[in-house]
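Fill in residues.
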């Protein structure tokens, strides 16, 4: 079982087999307030929404009350007459029709406005979600699956849409209707109202018992859905591995187990939620029958009249119907609150901290070596550093990188690098070799400040990198990774991703430098060929050539090549060697390579083992030492 799946299982809320942990929102009131906080910019529209809901709800209450005078004044007196005068009856029907027409207009108005409010609110939430994801440190993505994060944008946001656009206005409408109906019931008949109150307490007791069970399972359903999405995403990305190792049946088995957990949670959630409506519906029929019986007894004994009973019976139905509606919307409310908590949990994650104040600027250098900041790209870079006295100093970016007694741990427990010190002077090519897990890639991640060190210092042109803004630091570094990621778009766009203001000529020049121009020219539409599915229509070597071209167009002063040629065959490697040499000329280069032949011309080769530098020197020095590097180079010890 993969580590991601194990993490998902641990997060799923299951302890011993068959033991289910029921979780509830930690602070539903706070969550609801926060949702309404996003709607605050629509205050004017919300005022009209509330007015529309009030108008729609009260029109039904008023229309029902008019049944009393219609029966008492226009129907009962006409019973038995040979030629009854229906003009007054017709007038009352027109009045009732006008009231209901106003209710229809109000309903349309608030539903249309609420649609605008809900879509605008969700637009803001999606923007904040995506923005926060861009601000999160890599550590967060190391501990959360892609599918789990995607579910925030899909399932959780959609559940929130259902609540804002339908459940919330319907709940408000139902509340107003219940309040209005209750007042009119008191006006018509206090004794029958007491009967309605008794029935209301019974209904609320049932809602609390059944709805409470439903809430815990709806939260569980959202968590299980995120796990299933994460697993599907993982399996889709790893289909080749699945097929190579005949993992199909095992993956099906794991998916069946996770899907079964989702089925159980969804089944229980909807079972408890859906039985509310028939229970409350049947109770309302019982209430109606009891009210009709008691009302008839009161009318026979002269305590009320037929019109009052008729209106009150309709109010009885109107009294229970809003409660039915609330129970129906309970599903979406519970789902939305669970999803909203997950959304807000992501939004509340601490963003990547950046306390840097040194920025990277384009510059020109005069004959005396003085630097002047300019807007256009000149190929000369400078660190712009404000001073305490208000002045600004400029330091030319030369590519001098130094580690001074650096100790680092990813989790704070297991130390990955132990007291590492190294330096790379401007224009030098530094190579790292060693077994997997020795700390090679970790060093390059620290240069980029993807992670921050616990002890020691890393200096870039004499400046502690913690003082440099992360975006500017990373802009000064070109990286070619072993795992190349290509975006959906043209070949031209993917190369230009290295520098968005690069011209077409710059892109083509970079492709030629990386020796990618030949195969690009033979693609169906050349540089305008659209790549999809992470460049699945290209070979791994071609994809990596595009990554090298992307780094070349960025024209960075420092290059980091993490197994940059690992997926390129020997012939292709020989073709791009000259281009790579041109690319690396005048730049500080850090190289991680398993092919030791690619680093023979490095100024310094550092051999790492268990997070420590055990050997350093150029190729000839290390061969003469006949140590670990000698064993690796001569094949006496294989890199793993």
């Amino acid at each position: 079982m993969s580590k991601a799946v194990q993490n998902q299982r641990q997060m799923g809320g299951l302890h011993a087999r068959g033991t289910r942990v029921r979780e509830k929102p930690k602070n539903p009131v706070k969550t609801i307030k926060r949702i309404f906080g996003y709607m605050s910019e629509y205050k004017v529209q919300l005022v009209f929404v509330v007015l529309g809901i009030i108008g729609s709800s009260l029109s039904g209450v008023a229309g029902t009350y008019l049944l009393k005078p219609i029966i008492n004044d226009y129907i009962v007196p006409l019973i038995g007459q040979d030629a009854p005068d229906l003009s007054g009856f017709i007038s009352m029907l027109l009045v009732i029709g006008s009231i209901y027409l106003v209710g229809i207009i109000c309903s349309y108005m608030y539903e249309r406005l609420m649609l605008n409010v809900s879509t605008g609110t969700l637009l803001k939430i999606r923007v904040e979600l995506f923005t926060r994801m861009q601000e999160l440190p890599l550590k967060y993505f190391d501990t959360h699956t892609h599918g789990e994060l995607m579910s925030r944008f899909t399932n959780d946001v959609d559940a929130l849409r259902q609540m804002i656009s339908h459940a919330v206005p319907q709940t408000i409408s139902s509340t107003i209707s219940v309040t209005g109906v209750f007042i009119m019931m008191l006006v018509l008949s206090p004794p029958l109202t007491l009967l309605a109150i008794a029935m209301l307490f019974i209904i609320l007791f049932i809602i609390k018992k059944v709805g409470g069970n439903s809430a815990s399972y709806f939260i569980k359903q959202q968590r299980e859905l995120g796990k299933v999405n994460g697993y599907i995403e993982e399996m889709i990305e790893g289909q080749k591995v699945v097929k190579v190792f005949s993992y199909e049946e095992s993956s099906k088995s794991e998916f069946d187990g996770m899907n079964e957990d989702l089925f159980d949670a969804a089944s229980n959630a909807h079972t408890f939620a859906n039985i509310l409506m028939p229970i409350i519906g049947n109770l309302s029929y019982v209430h109606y029958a009891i009210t009709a019986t008691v009302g008839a007894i009161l009318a026979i004994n002269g305590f009320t009249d037929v019109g009052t009973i008729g209106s009150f019976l309709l109010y009885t139905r109107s009294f229970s119907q809003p409660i039915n509606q609330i129970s129906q919307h309970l599903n979406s409310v519970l789902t939305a609150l669970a999803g909203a908590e997950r959304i807000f949990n992501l939004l509340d994650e601490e963003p990547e901290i950046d306390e840097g104040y040194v920025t990277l600027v384009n510059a020109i250098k005069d004959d005396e070596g003085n630097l002047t900041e300019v807007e256009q790209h000149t190929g000369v870079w400078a660190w712009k550093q404000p001073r305490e006295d208000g002045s600004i100093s400029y330091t030319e970016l030369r590519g001098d990188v130094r580690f001074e007694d650096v100790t680092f741990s990813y989790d704070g427990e297991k130390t990955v690098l132990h007291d590492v010190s190294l330096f790379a002077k401007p224009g030098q090519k530094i190579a790292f070799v060693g077994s997997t897990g020795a700390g090679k890639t970790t060093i390059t991640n620290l240069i980029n400040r993807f992670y921050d060190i616990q002890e020691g210092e890393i200096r870039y042109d004499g400046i502690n990198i913690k003082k440099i803004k992360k975006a500017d630091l990373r802009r000064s570094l070109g990286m070619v990774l072993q795992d190349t990621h290509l975006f959906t778009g043209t070949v031209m766009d993917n190369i230009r991703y290295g520098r968005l203001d690069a011209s077409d000529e710059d892109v083509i020049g970079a492709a030629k430098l990386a020796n990618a121009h030949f195969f690009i020219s033979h693609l169906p539409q050349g540089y305008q060929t659209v790549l999809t599915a992470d460049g699945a229509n290209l070979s791994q070597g071609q994809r990596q050539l595009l990554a090298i071209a992307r780094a070349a167009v960025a024209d960075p002063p420092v290059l980091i090549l993490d197994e940059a040629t690992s997926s390129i065959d020997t012939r292709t490697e020989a073709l791009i060697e000259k281009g790579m040499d041109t690319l690396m000329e005048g730049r500080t280069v850090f190289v991680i390579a398993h092919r030791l032949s690619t680093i023979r011309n490095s100024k310094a080769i550092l051999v790492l083992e268990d997070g420590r530098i055990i050997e350093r020197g150029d190729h000839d020095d290390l061969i003469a030492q006949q140590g670990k590097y000698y064993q690796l180079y001569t094949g006496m010890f294989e890199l793993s």
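The chain has three domains: 27-347, 359-396, 401-633.
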